[in-house]
Amino acid sequence: MAAAPDAENPGLDLGELAHHPAARDPHDDSLDATGRPRVEFPEPTPKTTHGPARVIAVCNQKGGVGKTTTTINLGASLASYGRRVLLVDLDPQGALSAGLGVAHHELELTVHNLLMESRISADDVLLRTRVDGLDLLPSNIDLSAAEIQLVNEVGREQTLGRALYPVLDRYDYILIDCQPSLGLLTVNALACADQVLIPMECEYFALRGLALLTDTVDKVKDRLNPRLGMAGIVVTMFDSRTLHSRDVMARVVEVFGDAVYHSVISRTVRFPETSVAGEPITSWAPKSSGATAYRALAREVIAQEK
Predict the structure, then answer these.
(1) Do the domain assignments include residue 4?
(2) Distance of CA 246 to the CA centre of its chain
(3) Model confidence at 105, in pLDDT bands (50, 70, 90)?
């Protein structure tokens, strides 16, 4: 895995991006969308036992890069391969909950209660989704108060980890959908995670913001969570027809190397439709390119276990 750039490493200074060679010849079928030799990840074998969970924080401080879409559809795809998955909505906007058809504004108990009230357990908050094997800890705007309330708590960075600990043995994966900031809630997610998965829009400014995120991840690893590692970077909203997308792809692969997933999520009108429908694209449009891409990402994530 390539070393992540930081404030002292100018690896993400794109310079004259337009003059960078394109990632691949779009007509060369031997290469995938990342410009590397195509890799086929095998169909995972079903599991007969579950747990302990691999906790993955889906994180990027930039908004609109596909964090929630990735959390929902990766989670549903992992569940379709026989994995038990828990999704944690750690964004006060509640988009993850809404994207799964939950009327989150009407909920009596949410992640906010789980974090702030010691008598509330994960089982009190947990909801089953329409997808077999996929559960949810929902959230709504109440969670916005938690960042302020947690400031005076002892061990405030470990609050989420303590709340999730009792259910780790039930699941194979816990995916945490982080808010678009690097505040205390996101630090909580990083402090209890085994790995970070970074969705990155295939766009110039999204790439530049990765340096700040990787610096935060390094600080959390150094000070709070030594086991924290990189699951990978998944490129979203990719459009192979544009030179800009191919140039950005070439640059991110050059800088991050094998940390970039081979599975790439292309732009499609299906994703907004699934948000309205309140279900993953894998069930709403199972034969669509988006569903195929997220199933491929799930196979790649599962293959990392070996």
Answers:
(1) no
(2) 22
(3) confident
